[in-house]
Every structure is written in structure tokens, then in C-alpha cells.
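Q: Second attempt. The first request was missing the SMILES, so the protein and S-adenosylmethionine are both included now.
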Amino acid sequence: MTCDSTHHTTEANRTAWSNGRYKAWETAFGSADAEAQRIVSNPEYVVRRILPYLGAVDGKRICNVQGSHGRVAVALTVLGAQVQVIDFSEENRLFATDLAKAAGVSVDYAVCDILEAERLDLRHKFDSLVLELGILHYHQDLEKFFSVMRSLAADDGTLCLNEFHPIQRKLFWPSGPHNYFSDSLIKADVPNPVDAGPSLGECQYRFWTMGEVVTAVVNSDFQITHLGEHPDWNNSAIPGTFTLVARVSP
Ligand SMILES: C[S@@+](CC[C@H](N)C(=O)[O-])C[C@H]1O[C@@H](n2cnc3c(N)ncnc32)[C@H](O)[C@@H]1O
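A: Got both inputs this time. The predicted holo structure:
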């Protein structure tokens, strides 16, 4: 994959994530105001998948990588963290900004390709990096992606990744490759939070094996401290998601 084609894929994915996105979140949640009230009334529930691995959140500097609509960022902020989102969709930023305002908190939101995060001057600024559900398959160079994570993390920082399991995405997801070892790019709809809503465009996805994910993490100067696999929401006989927790190598 050349730099040019990677850039082209990122731009196509950005276009899909920007097309009608504010409206889609508004339709799915009712309004930013309504969703903010739900988050404020139970922030722990919004971050239930990652909270057990973060330790005390109050006062922590957290980077929510590819943080989308901002629900996780707002919940963590309500719990006392100082949160920075990095995501490449301006429409996501607009929704997240309205969500934070309605929740009475402030979240920093940088619209930026995560692979270009060095231009944000955030080097080694974060105690924890939080990544949730639908992150890695937007990238075609995992070692580069995790080296960016290392550059954002403080020297005693941690990374908490809760992600779709490779078995689920590669073998069971209807639009997936149905081949665990496939390294092809797959074209499929960008997620639409409105059930049976119209297509909002297509993204190009690269699905990774568990071995590739683990190898890229440890080759980027992280030590893995936990790797948990969780049953699929619809078929408890297969893994649906996993949680990988790592700390910066001493
Ligand atoms: C499925 S969402 C992440 C999950 C999110 N926590 C949620 O619950 O909606 C994927 C996010 O990745 C962002 N994204 C994809 N590729 C990116 C890139 N190269 N740089 C920054 N953001 C990216 C999209 O804008 C989108 O908000």
C-alpha cells in the first residue's frame, strides 16, 4: 500500500464519517441535550467497558482516540477527567461540542487524522489513552498507529483498547472477508446509528488478526497487562469483543 493510496482511503473514510453525521446522531439520540442528561445521570454506565481498567479517573489526563460523538469523553469528564478527543470528522466534533455543553462540561476536540497527531503538540501528555469499538480497522499500518499511541502516552501512561474481536469481524460480520487471514481492504457502509436508516456512504476497512494487534502493541514500546475476550452479543459461543490493557514499557 503506497502513501498515496493510504491517503486516498483515509480521505474517503473521512468523507463517509462526515456525511450527515450530526443529523444521524441527533436522530439516534433524540437530541444532544437528551443524550447529555442520560450521560450525566449515569456516566459510569457509558464507560463500563473501560472503567475497571482506568483506576481513579478524577484528575487524569485522558485521550479518547477516534472518540466520535463524544459520549465516552463527556462521561469521563463528568467523572472528573480532563479529556482530549482526536477524531477526523468535523460533524462528530459539532455533535460532541453540543453534547459537552448540554452536560455542563468542557471537552477538547481536535479534528485531525490520528496518524498526523504530532502536529497537535500533545506529545506524552496523557496518563491514559482510551479507544473503544471500531478503531483499528480504519488503519492499514498498525505499527504506525501504535507508535502514534506511544507518542501521546506519558512515560508512565496506559492504553485501554476495547475493540471488536478479529474472529467476529473477519469470520462472522456479514460484510467481512470470511477469511481469518485475509489482508484485503473491504468496502462496506459506514456505521449508521439509525436502524434501517439510509446508507451514509462507504468506508474501506482492513481487519487485523489478534496476533497482528498484539505484535503491533508490544513493538511500540507497550507491555500488555491484560487481554480479555468477551462473548458476542448475539452468539455467546464466539468472541465478540476484546479488551487489551497495556502500560508504557519502563
Ligand atoms: C466506530 S467510531 C469509534 C467508536 C466510538 N467510540 C463510538 O462509540 O462511536 C470510529 C471513529 O473513528 C474515526 N476515524 C476513523 N479513521 C480515523 C482517522 N484516521 N483519524 C481520526 N479519526 C478517525 C471516525 O470519525 C469515527 O468517529
